[in-house]
Amino acid sequence: MTKRYSRFLTVCFCLFLGGLLIWHIALPDRDRSEVENRTLAQVPQFSWEALVDGSYTAAVEEYFADQFPLRDGWTGLKARVEQLAGKELFNGVYLCGDTLISKVEAPAEGQVEKDLSYVLRLSEKTEVPVYLGLIPTAAEIWKDKLPVGAESWDQTQLLEAAEATGLPTVDFAAALEAHADEAIFYRTDHHWTTLGAFYGANALLERLEQPLLEMEDFTPEVVSRDFNGTLYSTSGIHWLTPDTMEFWGREDGLSVTSWRTGEAQPGVLYDRSYLEKKDKYSAFLGGNQPLCVIRNEARPEGEKLLLVRDSYSDALAPLLAGRFSEIHLVDLRYYRLPLTQYAAENGIDRIVVLYSAQNFLTDQNLVLLAQ
Amino acid sequence: MIFSSLTFLFAYLPVTLAVYFLTPLRWRNWVLLAVSLFFYGWGEPVYILIMFLSILIDYTHGMLVEKYRSDDRKARWFVAQSVIFNLLLLGFFKYWDFLAANLSLIPGVRVPQLGIPLPIGISFFTFQTMSYTIDVYRQDAPVQRNMVKFGTFVTMFPQLIAGPIVQYKTVAAALEHRVNTTEDFARGAGRFTVGLAKKVLLANSIGALWEECLAAQAAGTLTAVSGWLGLLAFGFQIYFDFSGYSDMAIGLGYMFGFRFDENFRYPYLASSVSEFWRRWHMSLTGWFRDYLYIPLGGNRHGTAKTLRNLFLVWFCTGFWHGASWNFVLWGMYFFLWFLLERYLLRGVLDRMPAMVKHLYTLVVVFVGWGIFAMEDLGVCGRYLAACFGGAPVWSAADGFRLRSYAVTFLVLILASTTLGRDAWEKAPEKARRVLMPVLMFLGLVVCTAYLVDGSYNPFLYFRF
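YS: structure for the whole thing
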């Protein structure tokens, strides 16, 4: 190596390391990542205590990684390299042609029984009939699309265990499987599409022995053709065609009340401001919130339904709204009053514990059902 | 702090390099000492105190040995003190809980376990400082009268936490006076990038497969094929992780003007188990040879003593890797193979074709990795049983694993041979000049992508 050439290599090396450092410093810190849909770590507060117990340096590492320049670009590059190396699983997401499917990990021993027992406990504590609806995810309904030999926990085990509790259950699996060749899940997001939610709504109505919805009742409106969902973010696979998102429900005659901060505020069935953002799925009812009530002024005599929700319910509830006088959506992650009390105070006629199978297996708050 | 982290690569290293090279020559040991202490304290700030203690005690003992050189009994006593101190340090932090747990198995004995986190790299730096006092006594190394220089040796961040075990005599001259050339820096940067890529792209990728196979074992779905895939995966993970660290250390050494000895020499090309150990973690095997095996008499006092010495060396080699029975077993496993080769197989192996010798060595070594990797001997036994016919041969999931990792395995196998190095050396000078910066840049960019994504990036030597 000549001196000049060595100098060239040295400069390249130092420029790469030092350049990214300067870029990092110069780049203003972001509060949250739209792509990853989470808040990003900020410059940690120094304290001697935190330094001694090691939490300070850990926080610095987290801050440094979270605010790294071109974060999303790096993630995408890694996915590309992994694809070149023949990988089919990207951070827990299978690449199945033009579709991303989230792998479901096996739950801990006894987890299923424990979770189901909380639902049972709720049904024993209240006079209101309690239904259990577990929505199998794409990894179950679309398992034929998974790469050959790709493992994902068999969700029918959960559904069978739910059946065995003796609680009235909603057969989402049959409803979705009957339409498995349609776009019932997003290709880049883990949720069901409005079409999937429509079939789900009918499965629920069937269980509640009510007349089914007709597709003609709705006027589907394509609201976005560039929806890149959560699986797009976690997998780093940024090269698939974005999803199309539709709104089906009509807002006339419905009034939505949201309790986001503990106080009642007017809400909307579809919050179109989210359509301009990355997290477009939050347009349904305006995303996660402790409590949301949809009132149907045209049907004051109808039943009052309480959905113990996860985000799947947000696409479902607008479709059901026309059939009930009130739909209450309670999120156990944020809502801390006993459900039995809530049901009694609000004259609820039926409670549906409605979760996607994957969320049901991982949610830490199901214990609150039993309180 | 670990090398394969964003904070090291894009904050610590550029700042350290800038400060180091902007500092006048005579203050550079101070800088190196300061940044090394910072590096060490990053993960566990309190343990900087151990560093200070270690520097102070070994520095003093080196001086005392030198002072009482004429009085051999005293000099020996000070060597012994230093050795005892280092072994106590290691024994307390690394082996206390293990001893306590095992002693408590004896009826009537209750020794409390303390659960103190292991100071990172303690097995490396205690061995380095021990060898210093011994070398001073043996007059293999000059005494270091300057505490800053000695401290720089003890804490030198490139090799502090994951080796190689650098003996004082290797760096004694460079501590006094070192020449920093651009050629060395460029060579070091290249070597560092190679090491980083080995760790981040190869070791981490294949390590995920090992975790998967281990999980399959726990779930009861392990097949013979995935069993072997898992052993292969772990063997490749530890080799590329460890030798990647050594490459990064050697590369950083070059950048700062130090030459460390090589630590690995294509161990998976070995054609016998004993040869494997002459190519694997050479700074450790060399250490045990120089400071344990030979002082005990080596092979010069008859078969019985040789056997005892070999036993001790293998026991210590195993136990050094972690305070758990599986590591002891792992050492004994190699002791046995070593004896077999030495006394029984030598003649047989010599007559075998090269391929057979090679395959035999790899099977022994990779089964050994199984013992090494699984601390729970029950799990280990069941896992190995599955590999040797105690489970179905194949499942659909194995096809998925093979497809997912075929390219990675191919790269790992090629990278375990000298093919890449030979091709590089045979390439025309011009091609190399163009390729070198391109490959370095690609390596750094892809490694950064993997680190930012924050996927599986374990530090394997928390037990060492």
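YS: worth flagging: Chain B touches chain A through 56 residues (CB under 8 Å).
IM: good catch. Also Chain B has two domains: 6-178, 184-463.
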